[in-house]
């Protein structure tokens, strides 16, 4: 399975913060936001990852992340000229995906929780599509999934004015290779975007859609607003300082899953110098 991180868009809901910098490069406590979704893909063993950025931000991402060799991965970069919807990620990344399955994660989504890694790893060999559901207070802001009394999926709607359930669909999706052809069939919605909910509906109608409900022990943040960005920062700060473990440390994930050895960690320590991040890696080797 390959991975795509969609890190485009203009971040207008965060203006003026994002006028001169990509939203996905903003700090969430002690790391750039992009580290968190990247660590999620690495957590499930994905090493080949495509970053889709805006034209003006691509060089900044390349400067930050390089070619991925420092964490035992292969990173590629391409451009989304305009934010025309999530489904476009699969047509933009068609050549990168090739004949493989693919996971898509949004660059401004942060996930954490007990059992989260196990839940994700169960989706890597998906036949069809696997998405997730998370209970929220404001489902009208998201794609919404409706269940019957037996937890069978009845419908999927994108940002409905009157949601049929409280379950939002987070920005993390696993698909087999049919997603590329499905994406080519998606027409722009009334919002002028190619909605990923349309792809999910295609899989649902084909009887090939799984939906995993995230439990109470799992947390999800969509950091698209100032309030949610602040909430995510506070969440990461409190957890890390109380548990003495770091969330979203890509070198640690790479080391634990044997993408890299001690030599790469030592190089990272030199790179990060006296920062809190570098000190954490130093303690990791101890």
Automatic annotation (TrEMBL):
It comes from the Bacteria. Its EC number is 2.7.7.24. Its cofactor is Mg(2+). CDD domains: G1P_TT_short. Gene3D superfamilies: Spore Coat Polysaccharide Biosynthesis Protein SpsA, Chain A (3.90.550.10). Residues 2-236 form the Nucleotidyl transferase domain. It catalyses: dTTP + alpha-D-glucose 1-phosphate + H(+) = dTDP-alpha-D-glucose + diphosphate. GO terms for molecular function: glucose-1-phosphate thymidylyltransferase activity. Coiled coil: none annotated. It holds the Pfam family NTP_transferase. The keyword Nucleotidyltransferase applies. InterPro entries: G1P_thy_trans_s (IPR005907), NTP_transferase_dom (IPR005835), Nucleotide-diphossugar_trans (IPR029044). Keywords: Magnesium, Metal-binding, Nucleotidyltransferase, Transferase. Catalyzes the formation of dTDP-glucose, from dTTP and glucose 1-phosphate, as well as its pyrophosphorolysis. Belongs to the glucose-1-phosphate thymidylyltransferase family. PANTHER family: GLUCOSE-1-PHOSPHATE THYMIDYLYLTRANSFERASE, GLUCOSE-1-PHOSPHATE THYMIDYLYLTRANSFERASE 1. This is Glucose-1-phosphate thymidylyltransferase. It comes from Autumnicola psychrophila. The gene is rfbA.
């Amino acid at each position: 399975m390959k991975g795509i991180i969609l890190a485009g868009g203009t971040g207008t809901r965060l203006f003026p913060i994002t006028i001169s910098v990509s939203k996905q490069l903003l700090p969430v406590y002690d790391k750039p936001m992009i580290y968190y979704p990247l660590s999620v893909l690495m957590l499930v063993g994905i090493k080949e990852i495509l970053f889709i950025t805006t034209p003006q931000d691509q060089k900044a991402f390349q400067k930050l992340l390089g070619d991925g060799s420092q964490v035992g991965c292969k990173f590629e970069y391409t451009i989304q000229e305009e934010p025309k919807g999530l489904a476009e990620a699969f047509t933009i990344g068609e050549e990168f995906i090739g004949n493989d399955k693919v996971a898509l994660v949004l660059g401004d989504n942060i996930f954490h929780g007990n059992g989260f890694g196990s839940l994700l790893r169960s989706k890597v060999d998906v036949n069809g599509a696997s998405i997730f559901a998370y209970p929220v207070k404001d489902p009208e802001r998201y794609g919404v999934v409706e269940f019957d009394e037996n937890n069978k999926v009845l419908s999927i709607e994108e940002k409905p004015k009157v949601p049929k359930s409280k379950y939002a669909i987070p920005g993390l999706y696993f698909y087999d290779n049919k997603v590329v052809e499905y994406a080519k069939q998606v027409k722009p919605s009334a919002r002028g975007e190619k909605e990923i909910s349309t792809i999910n509906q295609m899989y649902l109608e084909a009887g090939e859609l799984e939906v995993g409900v995230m439990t109470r022990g799992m947390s999800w943040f969509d950091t698209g607003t100032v309030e949610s960005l602040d909430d995510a920062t506070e969440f990461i700060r409190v957890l890390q300082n109380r548990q003495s473990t770091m969330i979203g440390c890509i070198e640690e994930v790479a080391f634990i899953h044997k993408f890299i050895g001690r030599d790469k960690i030592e190089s990272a320590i030199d790179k990060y110098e006296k920062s809190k991040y570098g000190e954490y890696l130093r303690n990791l080797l101890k």
